[in-house]
Amino acid sequence: MQETMIERAKALMESKSVVRVVGWRIGEFGYDVTPSVFTTVDDLNGNFVYNDFCGSNLSKYLVRLSCEEGKVLVFLKPCDTYSFTQLLKEHRIHRDNVYAIGIPCNGKIDIEKVRQAGGEGITAIRSEGSTVIARTLYGEKKFDRKEVLSERCLNCKSKKHVTYDELLGEEGEVLDSHRFDMVEKLEAMSSNERFEFWRNELSRCIRCNACRNVCPACTCEKCIFDNDNSGVSNKAAADSFEENMFHIIRAFHVAGRCTDCGECSRVCPEHIPLHLLNRKFIKDINELYGEYQAGSDMETVSPLTSYTIEDDDPSIVNRRGGGHDA
Amino acid sequence: MLSLLKSKLNEFFELVAKETLVYLPVDNSSGQASYQKWKEGVVYSSALNTVRSAKDFFFPQMENLMDFKMQGKSVEVVDTRVEKEDFVIFGVRACDVASFSILDKVFLADPVDTYYQNRRDHAVIISMACSKPESTCFCPLYGIDATKPEGDLSAWETEDRIFFKANTQKGEVLLNNASRLLEESEGQIVEVQRETTKKILEELPFAHLDLSKFKGENLMELFNSPKWAELSQSCLGCGTCTFVCPTCQCFDIKDFDTGHGVKRFRCWDSCMYSEFTKMAAANPRLTQLERFRQRFMHKLVYFPDNNEGTYGCVGCGRCLIKCPVSMNIVKVIKQLGEE
Amino acid sequence: MSMNGANEFRPNIVAFCCNWCSYAGADLAGTNRLEYPAEVKIVRVPCSCRVNPLFVLRAFQRGADGVIICGCHPGDCHYTSGNYFARRRMTLLFSMLDYLGVEKARTRVEWVSAAEGAKFASVMKDFVQTVAKLGENRRLEDIRCKRQ
């Protein structure tokens, strides 16, 4: 697939259909790929890569790149196409300046999982079928691909590309993922247990803002947390309240627009399961206001900017959910 | 050499904890290690290093500097500093220990930062030598010996023992206090471990990068290099690198209105942020390229130029592991250092 | 929070009341001399839709033990549809707060019309009682804002 992608990119560049290509650049060890813009054929030949570690969602870079002169070619995995469509819906990307090629994906590997499974001192790594082979300072190590797949890829919701100009590989289907399982488990706990769980997770937050900056739904030119006029700007959480506030508000601001791409949890240096906050909103919206998948089409109105007269009152919260107050 | 049986490690912590607070790397619920206070039941982590560096102890992420209480037209300034008790940090790796001397150059230079100095004076550092470095480590590049870390007390971990060597008065005192648990042992095994580890350190992929270009005299050439555009392209401006880095030391001072007084606090800031060093007119660096360039020029050129050649990096590798887009100082050194 | 002589906990309540219906309802309660607890601090907003989730969090941060939002009955909003949006927004917010372990009973939305002075008073009495039983807000408190 990597070769096909490079050939296609080169052809489009040589025919002057596109001026730049956004994809992934090879790193030192095979897993440290960097999202990058390629402007020459030589660069593509020498440095473009598409492997099992290309987890980055490239659609967010288009917010900036589609404003530049000349067309940009972007490669989008199925989950990335949802973010791309959502951004188009919100008029953040100039569609005419983008040529999108849908690429297949059968899951990306989480290098942290490889490390925790005994992958110390990795100097090179590659997938071969269902095995992952790592060359390390301490000898060769093999891993079962299923064991080291990214958390979010385990509940992949769709192999279908929602928006594209061209498709490489076969068209996929929307899948029946079990992505709300953990949310349901949390809902079934008592409120004390839930409080303990979230305190334990959110107290590790270092306010690095990686989750916010990588999120395709967080595209505000000036985030309220960076804006001194908002009254809530802060660069670090002073106490548990500010830790909670940042995450509640961020999840709320993307509610109904979050496509569940999983980037937030992938980039968190403290491995906080942030996707569980966003998935809670998605689950609530699905159950209360009808099934809604952000970014699956351009027409459906977002649930938070619409209403029906029959909507439930907020008191429904007292009657829903599993856990009891204890 | 004095040594402790690993089976007695908890007794050791308990004994030391009777006199002072003890902090050590412990596995947290995400499977990574972080420094936690010792208490009964806590287990010393076997991870190579913690997610957050040890600079947290001397330069915490959030620190209250003073309070203001207003009464009519008068303002009372309240010093909220709590005289810190002595504390012991166990298991600090050579890279993090080296970062302390870099931070000292900034905080203990005139005018002395008394908050930092206070914490520094109260600390006893027990460092731990490495025996299994990661491929992302590159401390040898900066002349740091991972097999012989500095600190008040240096420690080496073998199969069933921990060997100690005191380097300062504080270290001697601690060893004396724990003497009933320690035994005089043959130190040869430590030398063997050091030799084996040194060989691995030699083989580390980034142990021999070329830093010769990063000198004050090349400042303008490096600053104006066209390579910054490509290097900074994918930078999200998140600040993860600055927060996990043991030597990054930028901070912001802000006031918080509690409703019944004002708290002036300082917190970590990041040169990657758009609000960094915001002045009356605006932030001086308006694009991500300029911010990205600033960070690395500071670590590789400005800082060593002002500090007799000491680079602002210790090669711990945290930025390599944690950057969401895998951009890091090694890639910068390689790209700009070549030619 | 304030303690009276009998050491009974009296919670701090913030009530966001929309100008056209619920604030007028509160006014009616006043003119009819209907008592409702003094712990309730009213913040007048043009519409219940004006209430940002940040307002709710900030109220808790600054010492509130309970937050209630009062608006026009659905269908009677002065701005036609503001309360419909508020309904969805507050439902999701309260659900998220519950998910994080904050007690459900600390937050509420009630529809009170300008003619329902009695309802306003009884809603407030009930809410204060409910929150008093829960005690001080610990889970969403900002220790820096606590008065010593």
Strand order of the largest sheet of chain A: 2-1-3-4-8
Global shape of chain A: globular
**Strand composition percent of chain B:** 15-25%
Shape of chain B: globular
Order of helices and strands of chain A: HEEHHEHEHEEEHEHHHHHH
Q: How many beta-strand runs of chain B?
A: 12
Which stretches of chain B are poorly predicted, pLDDT < 50 over at least 5 residues?
Answer: none
* Rg from alpha-carbon coordinates of chain B: 22 Å
* Spatial separation of the terminal alpha carbons of chain A: 53 Å
Oligomeric state as shown: heterotrimer
Number of strands of chain A: 8
Would you kindly provide a written description of the structure presented here, covering whatever features stand out?
The complex is a heterotrimer of chains A (326), B (339) and C (148). Chain A has helices at 2-14, 41-47, 62-65, 78-89, 111-116, 151-154, 181-188, 191-202, 210-214, 240-254, 263-267, 275-289; strands spanning 20-25, 34-38, 72-76, 98-102, 122-128, 131-136, 139-144, 166-167. In chain A, strand 5 (122-128) and strand 6 (131-136) form a beta hairpin. Chain A has twelve helices and eight strands. Chain B is α+β, with helices and mostly antiparallel strands and 339 residues long. Chain C has one domain (11-139): Rossmann fold, CATH 3.40.50. Chain C is built from four helices and six strands. In chain C, strand 5 (66-71), helix 3 and strand 6 form a beta-alpha-beta unit. The termini of chain C are close together. The interface between A and B is large, with 46 and 50 residues.
Compact description:
Chain B is of the alpha+beta class and 339 residues long. Chain B has helices spanning 9-19, 94-107, 114-122, 169-177, 188-203, 219-223, 227-232, 240-244, 288-306, 318-322, 329-337, and strands at 2-5, 21-27, 33-37, 62-71, 74-79, 87-92, 123-128, 153-157, 161-166, 183-184, 251-257, 262-268. Chain C has 148 residues and is of the alpha/beta class.
Outline the fold blueprint.
The complex is a heterotrimer of chains A (326), B (339) and C (148).
Chain A: H1 2-14, E1 20-25, E2 34-38, H2 41-47, H3 62-65, E3 72-76, H4 78-89, E4 98-102, H5 111-116, E5 122-128, E6 131-136, E7 139-144, H6 151-154, E8 166-167, H7 181-188, H8 191-202, H9 210-214, H10 240-254, H11 263-267, H12 275-289
Parallel strand pairs in A: 1-3, 3-4, 4-8
Antiparallel strand pairs in A: 1-2, 5-6, 6-7
Chain B: E1 2-5, H1 9-19, E2 21-27, E3 33-37, E4 62-71, E5 74-79, E6 87-92, H2 94-107, H3 114-122, E7 123-128, E8 153-157, E9 161-166, H4 169-177, E10 183-184, H5 188-203, H6 219-223, H7 227-232, H8 240-244, E11 251-257, E12 262-268, H9 288-306, H10 318-322, H11 329-337
Parallel strand pairs in B: 2-6, 6-7, 7-8
Antiparallel strand pairs in B: 1-9, 1-10, 2-3, 4-5, 4-12, 8-9, 11-12
Chain C: E1 2-3, E2 9-10, E3 13-18, H1 22-31, E4 40-45, H2 53-61, E5 66-71, H3 82-99, E6 107-111, H4 117-134
Parallel strand pairs in C: 3-4, 3-5, 5-6
Antiparallel strand pairs in C: 1-2
Helix pairs in contact in C: 1-4
